[in-house]
Fold:
Amino acid sequence: MVLIQNFLPLFAYTLFFNQQVTLADDSVPESELTIVGTWSSKSNTVFTGSGFYDPVDELLIEPDLPGVSYSFTDDGYFEEALYQVAGNAKDHHCPTAVLIFQHGTYRELDNGTLVLEPYDVDGRQLLSQPCEDKGISTYSRYNQTEVFRNYEVSLNTYHGRIQLQLYASDGVKQPPLYLAYRPPNMLPTIVLNPTAASDEAQATATGASAKIKRSLENRYRTNAVKESSLNYTLWWWLGAILMGAGSTIYFLY
Structure:
């Protein structure tokens, strides 16, 4: 009897906890369980957008920790940001690091398979092998179509966050991704660095580059300019004159 009494509180707590989990899962509207948004891995340091890749100067920006991020729009565009570090079993001082940026369009097939088709001229890869490249990383174009057999969007009740579970083309379960931004945080969905085969194409590329640059520069800025109605120079000289006059009066009297 004593043993049963000791386990009753634990049993009651388990029932209550399971009930709470079920209610939490049911409380998420079906409209929120969609792939649209920016998703990031558990490290929560890798995100798509201008913080990872600068298309104007063509720079890949290294995050604090490795991870992966995907963004999807509701009209068929995607973006990928990947930062991976692999150890070297023979020499722990020689890890290999890679940063990859891709974006383009995606399709969802009738069977739930996701096909990500990047713009072949925009993908970029930065490969670092410090013990082989003498400290000079290799920067190159990158283009790799990705296929995920299927995916699931659900509420992770442990973390209290909406989760995206991707499955590789062979069905292997990938590390979960968690919703970070909705609407997604992405670069413009157009081709960012088109190759120019003619003067007209070059002009188009230049115009697109200028447009992207203005977009990135203005993303966190405002056109308002704070102006002050006070003339600080006038007030400084007035203060100096008054201090001088006060000192003169003090010494004379």
